[in-house]
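Structure, all two chains, one model.
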Amino acid sequence: MNISVLAVDDSRTMRDMITLALSSEGFDVQLAEDGEHGLEVLDGMEPDVIITDINMPRLDGFGFIDAVRARDDTKTTPILVLTTESSADLKTRARDAGATGWIVKPFAQDKLVRALRMVAG
Amino acid sequence: MSDPMQEIMASFFIECEELHEALIDALQSMADGEHDAETINVAFRAVHSIKGGAGAFGLDELVAFAHQFETVMDACRAGDLEITDDLVQLFLRCGDMLSDLIRCSRDGEEFDTAASEALIAELSTFAAEESEEEDAPEIDFQPMTLSLDDLGGDAPDAADLGSPSLPDLPPLDNLPVAPPEPEQPEAGQLLVRFKPEPELYESGNEPLYLLKSLADLGQCHITPRFDPPKSVDDLNSFGDRLAWEIRIDTEATPAAVNEIFEFATGLCHFEVVSGQSEPDVVEPSEPDAHAELSGPVPEDTPTPPPPIVAAPDPVPPKPAQKSDKPAAPAAKAATKSSPTVRVDLDRIERLVNLVGELVINQAMLSQSIAEENIPPNSPVSAGLDEFMQLTRNIQESVMMIRAQPVKSLFQRMSRIVREASAAVDKSVRLTTEGETTEIDKTAIESLADPLTHMIRNAVDHGLEPTETRIANGKPRQGEIRLAAAHRSGRVVIEVSDDGGGINRQKVLNIALAKGLVPEDANLSDSEIDQLLFLPGFSTADEVSSLSGRGVGMDVVKTQITALGGRIAIESTAGVGTKFTISLPLTLAVLDGMVVTVAGETLVVPLNAIVETLSLTENDLRHVGPGQVVLCVREKFVPVLDLGKELGYRSALAFEKDTIALLISPEEGKLVAVLVDTIEDQRQVVIKGLQESYGRVRGVAAATILGDGKIALILDASDIAASAAGVTFDATQKEAS
């Protein structure tokens, strides 16, 4: 069974890249453009793993993770933070919000795939 | 993979343009004094997204620049750096550079590395402290490099975990009742002690998968430790009662294990001991980790197999979630129904052309039906009416697809103002109005050149030097205003400055010196202003690097005219100068009046016609040889016979029902154009002639009429210019 992924990123380029990197590896990828949109998408799916950007309009990655963790159905869904920012502070904040792990952009396809398989089985 | 990557890259550059637009917008707001968090955030996000995408495509120069840019903006965002006017100006210049870098990256051109490095250096003076901070954590925070080969083959089945390790589990009697302290793994082994904290589960991490990943390093011998709850109340905090000791037969280094546990760092007690070396405590930040793990082992040391299988149980019920979940729909199914769709311009062009054909077709059909003398109340006529209505609606909708707000154009101009004002060392601010006014995309692109030129002119010649301004009691900072609006079926774009106005004496002197006007000419103010549009005219005493490049306002006028537009000039000494460009809304179709002249069918753009008059010979006054004027409401208007003008006949054969079309080529100007009959008013599809015939004086384009005949569309301003007796355009002279 394919691993289903919800990828939340405000950059179309990033969404395209993620789709490209994962679809060919047999992941089912759904996309959202920001945190708010991500939460809407979650109403209609239960992904095996969520990838999210941090810097986004409307609802940023921290707020999104908070909201995801507050929902019963996604309380323990693995969340990978995909971001170009690599400060320790950001790591801590993402972790505090409830992120499972992080990947620094730009990502290599195989690394993303491995990380996803590691957190989502 | 190269093909989809190319596509993504292409869409990345389009996205970059949008992001850049948002960036400049936000920076402009900041320049206007809006320093609120969201404005800064928008700017930051734009640069950040550009950097992110650029990184994905290995556009290192772009990444490096965006990074430095973003770093300084981040400091502003965090409140560590005060937002001064100078800083915002620097940001704006960086925005321009970013745009250049994006363009160069896209077109594969060479970067002006010196310029970008200079800006990076300038930025880094602001970012000195930040960049130091930033570099440090990068080391322990590299992109994931997992040493797993492929996890894909392993089904995520809990039972799988135990199987490789079960046969190799140490016999029961070897199990440490009280583990030797410290227990050393053998050579070629790694010993991992792992005890999750409840937070590990809460963050969505899964011990099972961590253990599975360890199993990929080599044969694992797993010993679970279970600290059973003492009372029912303890049941909730199940998470920290499980621990594992894993011995791995592997040549891998502890670093490989650290990588696997990267996400779990800080969420568990965890240590790796290497068989080849000294104990390798990898969690110095958690001094109690070792102590706790090697502390008293639960008295009831479990028999290994059951807990191993049971291990995943306390973990949140992920497998259940998976199984009852409906099959996930295909990728992107959930993509937000975005408010915009990207369409190749070629496709729109095709659609526009097809709609053009449709309009022609409908016109032909109307004509055939009219010729059949079908009664107007018949179903055929009713159907035709509806068809015409629909055609018109379709056409308008299609034209709207091509329409775009002038905002992007105006934004480009803000850069021109910045560069131009820096070049001549004047302080200039650009204000814009009506940015949302929509205009045909082609027109937007074609307007960039003339507007750039006009803006440069305004900065260079229009605005006085700062000292003069101050001396005249004007604000130090000059203002250039760029405004767009829809006005009676046309788009009007105004470029004005609050400079000294046109120095008419100087203009006239130059024109006289260059022999552009006769010595004895007695020109009105507005006629002198018009001289600016003469070819090769330049008022700059010395050719400045900025605007004196040999192209003058004549080129601007030619470019505007090519768009079916006209340009007017208005100037008041000491107050400023205003150029008004007026353009047709769409370039592909126009409402025209079909007229006949000497047996030829012509189309006059409807929006050029102010009024139509039916004449008697008495209305015309002869004021000289071949010079005729028409008295319209006590005003004399020059008269022009179209037939004569276009060479269809040699002299005006005045007939009883001759019709005059009053044409206004520019604000406040009227010309009467005589035609024989008015046939119809209808939309016509513009078919360019320039490709085949070059520019023909008086003719803007051609069209195909309902009966399939070709008719020429007149260029109203050309016609009117010849009526005024002054031929301004060099190309006109050549053509005639």
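Residues 7 and 98 of chain A are 16 Å apart (CA to CA).
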